[in-house]
Amino acid sequence: MKNLTTLLMICLGYLGYAQSKLDNYIRIGLTTNEVIKQHNFDINKSVYALKEARSLFYPTVSLNANYTKAEGGRTIDIPIGDLLNPVYNTLNQITNSNAFPALQNQSVLINPDNFYDAKIHTIMPLLNFEIIYNKRIKKQQNSLQKIELEIYKRELVKEIKIAYYKYLQSIEGVKIYQDALKLVKENQRVNQSLFKNDKINRTAVLRSDNEVIRIEANLETAKQVSNNAKSYFNFLLNQKLDTEIEVDSENELLPNVMVNENTQNREELTQLGLVKVLNGNVSKLTQSYWFPKLSGFADLGFQDFDFEVNKQSRYYFAGLGLEWNIFSANKNKYRLRQVEEDTKKISSQIDNVKQQLLLQFQVSQNNLKSALEQFNADKNQKASAKKYNEDITKLYKEGQAIYIELLDAQNQWVNAQLNTNISLCNSWIAFAELERANATFNLK
Q1: Is 401 among the domain residues?
Q2: Mean pLDDT over each residue of the chain, to the nearest integer
Q3: Is the confidence at residue 222, as pLDDT, over 60?
Q4: What does DSSP assign to residue 126?
Q5: What pairing do the DSSP bridges indicate for beta strands 314-323 and 115-127?
Q6: Within this chain, do residues 207 and 354 fall inside the same structural domain, yes or no?
Q7: Are the beta carbons of 82 and 110 closer than 8 angstroms?
Q8: Least CB-packed of 161, 200, 210, 284 within 10 Å?
Q9: Residue 283: which region, alpha, beta or left (left: phi > 0; alpha: psi -120 to 50)?
Q10: What is the rounded distance in angstroms from the CA atom of residue 319 to the CA atom of residue 128?
């Protein structure tokens, strides 16, 4: 562990340089990723919803006009003749004239005929708690959308890092198999030469031929794995899948295992806290059912028959409207009880998520420590395997070792390189997961 700490301190000095290209790719991913764009669309939508909620405080003005043409239907009968004709007859007799003619009873249509009404209708809420709490809810929903975006960004950063490390692992694996292929081909050449000179039997030649075929197959598999890793990394960045990836020259740097616990600042907890506040406003919105609603209205326009427009046609009509619900068979009471249960559920979720996030941090930190220990062990094994392979190769060329010993030494050397490469990648992956669990990556 002491050696690991020393190595760690040395490697940290190069950390900023080693991560420069990866940080650049992360910035590209945070800008071009399609899912982030979709989240931004949702945020824009919630902003417009908030503006819509604010607009409810302002008056609504509309132009209303109608024209009616009617014939038949219900009427109002006015007995003008029956009422006035006896009086008119008496007046004619007194005045000895026909100055007061007889009148006919009138029948007036209820539906107005050839009548128009054009007006500017204005209505404005004066007291309405529903739109007050609705605006608060929309504002908090907008904040929730932003937090969800932050959460996805952290996940994306982790995925980009893991994809990058796996790509580094794959290209290093290709290099290892390419070097191994050179070794086995050299063995093949040496064995064929020794066989021609009757130094060894044909079995060693056949075995060396098979080793060449096996390494070539492994090399081809490694290349396809590398191509898949490249495609997935470019997919996360919304680039063409075959875009070349720049890699850092220093690949054997180790992450920092010394991380202080920071799970209380995770966006997930902030999100749940905001949901709890939002649910409180939903409760107040439900309670506002019992409060009165007061609004004002005003009409300014013209109405007349036969499209006449004059002083008598003009009119205005204004007033106040009051709505106060006094009975709903406990409908809103039961709605309020549902909201209260949701609040209890959210409080329970917050406590549970706190424990989950703390567990995630501790497991991730332990995994990183274990990965670093494994890398340190694999690196030492790699150095031993290299020395062992060099010694056996020298002895084999001097005729003091058999081919099986040489083959075993070379396989140990190749496997040690592969294991070291894998454990290094696993260390960085474990660090990326720890960084995600602790929300320490700076997204700004």
Answers
A1: yes
A2: 88
A3: yes
A4: E
A5: unpaired
A6: yes
A7: no
A8: 210
A9: alpha
A10: 17
User: Of all helices (H) and strands (E), which one includes residue 322?
Assistant: strand 314-323
CA of residue 305 relative to chain centroid, distance:
61
pLDDT at 414 over 50: yes
- Domain limits for position 100: 73-111
Tokens of 369: 């420590």
Q: How far apart are CA 444 and CA 442, in angstroms?
A: 6
Predicted confidence (pLDDT) per residue in 110-130, tens digit: 888 899 999 999 999 999 999
At 275, list the tokens.
């949901």
Complete edge-to-edge strand list for the sheet that includes strand 314-323: 60-68, 115-127, 293-305, 314-323
Contact 353, 430 (CB under 8 A): no
CB atoms within 10 A of CB 211: 22
Q: Which of 385, 414, 408 is nearest to 396 (CA)?
A: 408
Instruction: Give the chain's domain count.
Output: 2
100 & 33 share domain = no
Q: Crossing angle, helix 129-196 and helix 202-236, to 10 degrees?
A: 160
What is the H or E stretch that residue 118 is in? strand 115-127
Domain membership of residue 123 (yes or no) is no
More confident residue, 333 or 5: 333
Q: Residue 357 is which amino acid?
A: L
Dist. CA 173–CA 221, nearest whole Å: 10
Confidence of residue 74 (pLDDT cuts 50, 70, 90): confident
Question: CA separation (Å) from 372 to 248, 249, 363?
Answer: 20, 21, 14
What is the predicted pLDDT for the residue at 20?
Answer: 78
Q: Are residues 419 and 344 in the same domain?
A: yes
Looking at the structure, do residues 91 and 147 belong to the same domain, yes or no?
no
pLDDT tens per residue across span 313-362: 999 999 999 998 888 788 888 988 999 999 999 999 999 999 999 999 99
Residues 241 and 104 in one domain: no
- Asked if 105 and 237 sit in the same domain, the reply is no
CA atoms of 64 and 301, how far apart (whole Å): 9
**pLDDT-above-90 percentage for the chain:** 62
Same domain assignment for residues 41 and 103: no
What is the structure's pLDDT at 158?
A: 94
pTM: 0.80
At residue 233, what are phi and psi to the nearest 5 degrees? Answer: -60, -45
* For helices 403-438 and 331-397, angle between their N-to-C axes, nearest 10 degrees: 160
**Are both 171 and 261 inside the same structural domain?**
yes
- 359 in any annotated domain: yes
- Say which CATH number the domain at 181 has: 1.20.1600.10
What pLDDT is recorded for position 6?
41
Residue 381's H or E segment, with its range, is helix 331-397
